[in-house]
Structures are given as C-alpha cells and as structure tokens.
Amino acid sequence: MALNNTYDARLVQQETAVGAGLQILLLALLGTAIGMGPAGWLTGLAFAIATWAVLSRALHRSRLRSFGPANRVTLGRATLVGVVTALVADSFESSPPVTLFVGLTAVALILDGVDGKVARRTGTSTPLGARFDMEVDAFLILVLSVYVAMALGPWVLLIGVMRYAFVAAARALPWLNAPLPPSTARKTVAALQGVLLLLAASNLLPYAGTFAVVATALALLVWSFGRDILWLWRTSRSQKVAVAEMLELVARPEPVAS
Mean of the pLDDT values across residues 212-227? Predict the structure, then answer.
C-alpha cells in the first residue's frame, strides 16, 4: 500500500514538472516569434520555476494522490499567466503585440470560470485546488495592474496589491483570518477586475475612457474589501463581547441560600 501511495505521489509531482516544461516551451515559441528581450525571458523562466517549486511543495504537504482535472485546468491557466507576465516584463523595453497580449489574457480569464466547474462536476474540489486557483487569479490581476499602471500611473497598482496587503494585515490582525460568508457581490467584483483591466490594456478606449474603467474597478474593489473588513471587525467585536459576558457569568458567585 505504501508503494502505491509513493507511486501516485511521484505521478502528481511529474504533472507539475510537465506543466513547467510546457510553460517554458510556450515561452520559447512565442518569445522567439516576437523577439522577446532578456527581461521577458528571465521573468518567464523565473515564473515557471517558482510555480513548479511552490506547487510541488504544496502538493507534497497536502498528500494528494491525484492532481485532478480541475488542477490541470488551473495549471494550464498558470502557464498562460506566466507568458503574460513575461510579456509585461518585456514591455518595459519594447511594446508587446497587443493582439497576442489580449488574446492570452482573455483565454486565462475565461479558464478561470472553467476549473471550478470541472472540480464540482468531477467531485475533485480540494482546499489546495481552491488556493491554487485564487493565487493564479491574484497574480494575474497584479501583472495586469502593473501593465496598465505604465500608462495611467502608479495608483493603478492598488488594484493588484490590495489582496496581498490584506493577507499581510491578517498576520498582524488575526480577526481578519475569520471565514467570510459566501457573497455573489464579492465574486462578481473579483471577476470584473480582470475584465476591466484587460479592457484598459487593449487600447480600445481613449485615455479618459480607460481612466474611468480602471477607476471604476478600483472603486468596486475598495468597496468589496471595505465591506468584508467591516463585517469581520463587527463579528470579532461581537464574539469578544459574548466571551466577556460568558466569563463574567462564570465568575459571578453563586447566591447563598438563606
């Protein structure tokens, strides 16, 4: 039985290695075709290696016996995100082909709605898969915000770093780690970030229109995070009050019978 578990674990690790290999191959094909510079090549390779290393470690710790079809979709999306990241890094030296950039990003965004459905239909939903999906989403938003910020200014980076700032704040404020109730509004706002940033990056709108689109995205994100933080704070405060009342009740002396 132990031999089977070890064999399955090796297969899972091999899938992550294959994913990294495919990402490097795609990077090589597209990079050669468009004449990508050193910054793009190094960034793309770094992304592929980092994704493989982090995902392999997470899989080892979670002890999954099968990588699963949904994770394969997310890994494919991560491959596209890696190439998009390389294109953004290369854009500091030369402008990437807009059609290629928009096409790859659009496919990555579309696949975001596929992996969750695959996980539910195949019964392969796992905490690791959900986290993997979320991290790929967050990184793509960060990369898009960097690209759009080159045209509109550093304030656009707030969209990309907001989720990471929340995670950092949660280390100092444990009450931010409490689970949030399901919210359609939260999911909608999160999905809109990529769509609106991609629209801004596509150069289809005049400057004023692009500014308005990105400002709307930022406003929606601030509202969503603000609403969740307020809910977490109120919930934490209510729990503290309830605990204090319970302790006071326990510590209250029993009435002496006459």
Answer: 97
